[in-house]
């Protein structure tokens, strides 16, 4: 049922699921360069039994479909029979990071095993999309599992678009140097999303393979996580709080594998990210 009236929204609020304030969902992060994207997939949890780290997915070709029960997914409650789940509210905050931008996304397919030392096209052939099977709005990212530790080569990819046209050319930019970093891919002009990625090509490969993977994901919401600490080290509470009027009441699929990537405006030695979500059912 669509959540398309105030009455339905009020009813959903009465059935909402909100995580216990005393056990906030948090992730440790690592240092990264200015404005690089960082993936929270393999970073450790801030609370035991909360948002636990995920593992390295299966190597190319293929990779793994990702689900609500996949280790590393944001902990979602079980689906409610006969009802759809919607994101009603979100609360974010960061520590030792400078006002982080967050993309909350449904992680659909993940791969590993892409080497930065291979000069020919590497076959990826991502697994079939488990959700959003029309590919509309599905994005491509290059996820780092073991970084190069130095400037990386430029990476491009070949994909099938939502019209079923194979061989479309996309660009992922320069491979990230550190672990847990992420590059958002750019599609060909006019394309609305991706059904699959067939191959990846590394320009000017080096001597080190490292370990990278293609990740297919569907963005759900873009948010801001304010910094908890001020410049003098004093504790402040500046929550980023978002309601339905900002989030747009996006539907969260029953089997969604929620996950986040974020970017910070400064180079930092480390920091933490908290993200608490509230859901309603209608």
Task: Describe the protein's architecture and organization.
There is one protein chain. The protein has 282 residues and is mainly beta. The chain has one domain. It has 2 helices and 17 strands. Strands 1, 2, 5, 14, 15 and 17 form a 6-stranded antiparallel beta sheet that branches. Strand 9 and strand 10 (168-174) form a beta hairpin. The protein starts with 5 loop residues before the first helix and ends with a strand. Mean pLDDT is 81; it is low at 16-24, 30-35 and 231-235.
**Poorly predicted ranges:** 16-24, 30-35, 231-235
Number of helices: 2
Summed over residues and divided by their number, the pLDDT gives a mean of 81
Number of domains: 1
- The total count of strands amounts to 17
Strand content: 35-45%
Amino-to-carboxy terminus distance: 6 Å
**Helicity, as a percent range:** under 10%
Compact overview of the structure:
With 282 residues, the chain is mainly β. The chain has helices spanning 6-14, 244-247; strands at residues 17-18, 26-32, 37-39, 64-65, 85-95, 100-110, 122-123, 139-146, 154-161, 168-174, 181-184, 194-202, 211-225, 240-242, 251-252, 258-263, 268-281.
């Amino acid at each position: 049922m669509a959540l398309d009236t105030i009455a339905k929204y009020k009813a959903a609020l009465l059935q909402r699921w909100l995580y216990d304030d005393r056990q906030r969902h948090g992730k440790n992060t690592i240092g990264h360069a200015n404005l690089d994207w960082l993936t929270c997939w393999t970073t450790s949890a801030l609370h035991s039994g909360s948002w636990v780290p995920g593992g390295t997915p299966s190597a190319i070709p293929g990779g793994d479909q990702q689900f609500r029960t996949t280790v590393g997914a944001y902990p979602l409650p079980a689906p409610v029979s006969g009802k759809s789940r919607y994101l009603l509210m979100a609360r974010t905050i960061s520590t030792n990071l400078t006002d982080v931008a967050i993309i909350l996304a449904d992680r659909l397919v993940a791969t590993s095993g892409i080497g930065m030392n291979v000069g020919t096209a590497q076959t990826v052939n991502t697994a079939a999309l488990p959700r959003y099977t029309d590919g509309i709005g599905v994005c491509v990212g290059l996820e780092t599992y073991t970084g190069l530790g130095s400037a990386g080569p430029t990476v491009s990819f070949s994909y099938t678009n939502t019209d079923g046209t194979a061989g479309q050319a996309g660009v992922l930019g320069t491979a990230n140097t550190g672990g847990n970093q992420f590059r958002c891919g750019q599609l060909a002009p006019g394309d609305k999303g991706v059904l699959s990625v067939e191959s990846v090509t590394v320009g000017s490969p080096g001597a080190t393979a490292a370990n990278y993977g293609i990740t297919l994901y569907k963005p759900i919401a873009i948010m801001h996580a304010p910094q908890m600490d001020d410049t003098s080290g004093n504790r402040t509470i500046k929550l980023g709080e978002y309601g339905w009027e900002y989030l747009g009441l996006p539907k969260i699929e029953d089997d969604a594998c929620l996950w986040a990537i974020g970017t910070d405006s400064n180079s930092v030695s480390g920091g933490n990210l908290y993200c608490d979500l509230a859901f309603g059912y209608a």
